[in-house]
Amino acid sequence: MTHPAQPTASHFINGAYVEDTSGTEIPVIYAATGERIATVHAATPDIVEQALSSAKAAQKEWAKMTGTERGRILRRAADIIRDRNHELSVLETYDTGKPLQETLVADATSGADALEYFGGLAGSLTGEHIPMGEDWVYTVREPLGLCVGIGAWNYPTQIACWKGAPALACGNAMVFKPSETTPLCALKVAEILHEAGLPAGLYNVIQGMGEVGGALVTDPRVDKVSLTGSVPTGKKVYAAAASGMKHVTMELGGKSPLIIFDDADIDNAVGGAINGNFYSSGQVCSNGTRVFVHKNIKEEFLKSLAERTNNAILGNPLDEETNFGPMVTENQMNIVLGYIEKGKAEGARLICGGERADMDGYYIKPTVFADVTDDMVIAQEEIFGPVMAVLDFETEEEVIARANATEFGLSAGVFTNDLSRAHRVIGQMEAGSCFINSYNDAPVEAPFGGVKASGVGRENSKEAINHFSQVKSVYVRMGDVEAAF
Ligand code: NDP
User: Fold this and answer.
1) CATH topology for 257-436?
2) Active site annotation includes 35
3) Is the CB of 237 under 6 A from ligand 1?
């Protein structure tokens, strides 16, 4: 790849690109063609040490700056990202295979939103005054210190910013490890933050697999770990962080329900199901992959869904007409094809798709199964690909119980024109991020995160501040101290 925005080395540490070719070679494969477009090297213990020690050294001075000064740098970085949106979006497309039609509006722009939002909040982070008669208590909102961010491969720019922006706004330093599958974009985030004036060491990016993530999570200098990844990885990372009594945010997987009642606007409901299953070729944690459709409208819904899904344009992700890209890797494609075979073997009715597309790259046709039952594997496990399971239901009570009958709890959606029912149903959903007559909106202003096995903590919104800072409370006595003796 010869791309103007291509990072120039594997790591970004202490304000500069750093290479160490003695680390394990990690090929970067373009999912649309299977070609190697770049190579990075996993961090060696020396690189891990450089990243952690420079972050640790830089953090105290950063925390002493005013929030307004910190925020100004973040907002400047947001402006640079927006100015360079096109080249950063092309890089995101090379990193992930996602179509440019999506990356132009959903990735660098979402990262810029986070930097702008948390940059704006930084100057208003204060404690409170609590009167106690003559005495009083005041609280101080302090940074946690050194934070580690570990990312999944589906939104490499967004994840790097969603973690970095609130961490930096609160006065922390961050060491970020992207997924080995998509190592490029976070490096650009680091480069741009420093171009915007971030002092060296405050946002370092190092590459590697789980082993490098593990070294970061267990280091005693680290105060907080924020992971976006799968539930099994989340359990391991949470346990490792717990042994060092570190703060955590866990943004993990899901198998979220999308419930469509028979009074819903069918076109909107079909649109919601498409957005909630096929955006980013289905590689979205919050996807509503269990689509419960009332039996009265099931066939009408399926007919429209199949027609619209068959209109998806699979092709060169860099062509802005393309609206459906490949799976991120060959391995992920094979995992998803395996689930499709399971769906067929379990007797689900294939409505469309159901196979690899006949073209280069790791493309799977958007797939819809109907007549799916709760006990099928495709209704229970997170597939993380373009496979929608449509299940029937008859009553509100029944569908609420079935929607909640999962270990996951990331998202839930409902389509209905009955206002009371919409709120009643969402009120009973065991999920962190919910939608009424919509699906998968994730503005930076709204908290994002899961319940149950889907995670702990929240990203985005003012909530994220609570997860990247801690409160010190100070009791101030105005009179004499009374003592027993
Ligand atoms: P993984 O859980 O496989 O990996 C996530 C990250 O953790 C990667 O950077 C990985 O490194 C790293 N890692 C793996 N093992 C360890 C370990 N023992 N210690 C520290 N770090 C480790 O997830 P994927 O990358 O496959 O992403 C897909 C998953 O992410 C899905 O389950 C999806 O639902 C979830 N996700 C959740 C989101 C949310 O906000 N809730 C958003 C997006 C995705 P490496 O891969 O390089 O080995």
Assistant:
1) Aldehyde Dehydrogenase; Chain A, domain 2 (3.40.309)
2) no
3) yes
